[in-house]
UniProtKB/TrEMBL annotation:
<protein>
    <recommendedName>
        <fullName>phosphoenolpyruvate--protein phosphotransferase</fullName>
    </recommendedName>
</protein>
<comment type="similarity">
    <text>Belongs to the PEP-utilizing enzyme family.</text>
</comment>
């Protein structure tokens, strides 16, 4: 029985009519990797590196960071790993960085904005990552979606930010003598989703952060308990922005992952697959349910489901589409 379940978890998330969606896990430390693999993860779609900085009283050195990234890669044995550069600000404050207090931290110097202002934070991290690539990415390793190591930047809102980010990465890569590493960006601000076609020109992939995309689209603080029921990632406005993101990426042949909470909800995952998302990355324990649901669905029906969801007036209308069986009928 247990063995049958383990076999089932290892099956790919392929719809009945043959559309495969990569199933990945959000994992921050190497010791969590075995559990994620056991749950059916095919890689890590989001390694949040804030945790290296938050759980201790000082900034981790370049060497320490390189050790952690190398340990992650070794634990994954060549499966894809996407490491997100430090995303500080908003709800993630780091006392020892002594950053100025802001009136509205979620709308302040957060994510990419902070990193582009603080070379002392991003450069050691990038050096650690490119050293890992130099030492552990074998010649002839896959590039693109299956690359064993990719790097992404949080909270991007504009093309100039992406250009500055690429330039920094390229300079450090050349200094280290590392092979090229796919460079992606998080899509978690409406401006980025709306301009996805322009941004896709300058990066290798997108990863949609539905937690922040929902917060910024609906203007609801993601931590406000009073408004939690309304902070619904199934809001059609959020889904339409994800649709725009997929369309912009497709125009330049880039792949789209989703690493926010919506990816781990079986119905949400169906909608995302129907919108054309290539990879879903989630909390490891959500993987079996999402994979089973996608395997029971047909992609043609999911595309139709996603189109109808985007046309709903509100999140309740989208939720009402769940369980009417349509995504299962071919
Ligand atoms: C998101 O915003 O959806 C996301 C994945 O990033 P984080 O939750 O770390 O802000
Ligand atoms: Mg986010």
């Amino acid at each position: 029985e247990a063995e049958a379940q383990a076999r089932e978890r290892a099956l790919p998330a392929r719809t009945r009519d043959g559309r495969s969606v990569a199933a990945a896990a959000n994992v921050n430390t190497p010791d969590q990797v075995p559990f994620a693999l056991d749950q059916g993860a095919e890689g890590v779609g989001l390694m949040r590196t804030e945790f290296l900085f938050l759980e201790r009283g000082e900034t981790p050195s370049e060497d320490e960071q390189a050790e952690t990234y190398a340990a992650m890669m070794r634990a994954l044995g060549g499966r894809p790993l996407i490491v997100r550069a430090l995303d500080i600000g908003g709800d993630k404050q780091v006392a020892h960085l002594n950053l100025p207090r802001e009136e509205n931290p979620f709308l302040g110097v957060r994510g990419a904005r902070l990193l582009l202002r603080r070379p002392d934070l991003i450069e050691p991290q990038l050096r650690a990552l490119y050293r890992t690539a130099r030492d552990l990415v074998p010649a002839g390793a896959p590039t693109g979606k299956d690359a064993p190591l990719s790097i992404m930047m949080p909270m991007i809102t504009s093309v100039p930010e992406v250009l500055a980010w690429r330039e920094t990465c390229e300079r450090i890569r050349a200094e280290i003598g590392a092979p090229p590493v796919p460079l992606g960006i998080m899509i978690e601000v409406p401006a980025a989703a709306i301009q996805a076609d322009a941004l896709a020109r300058h990066c290798d992939f997108f990863s949609v952060g539905t937690n922040d995309l929902t917060q910024y689209t609906l203007a609801i603080d993601r931590q406000n308990p009073e408004l939690a029921p309304e902070a619904d990632s199934l809001h059609p406005a959020v889904l339409r922005l994800i649709r725009l993101t997929c369309e912009g990426a497709a125009r330049h042949g880039r792949f789209v992952g989703v690493c926010g909470g919506l990816a781990g909800d079986p119905f949400g995952a169906c909608l995302l697959a129907g919108l054309g998302v290539d990879e879903l990355s989630m909390t490891p324990r959500d993987l079996p349910g999402v994979k089973a649901r996608l395997r029971a669905s047909s992609f043609i029906a999911l595309r139709d489901l996603a189109a109808r969801a985007c046309a709903q007036a509100d999140a309740a209308g989208v939720r009402a589409l769940d369980g009417d069986g349509t995504e299962r009928s071919a």
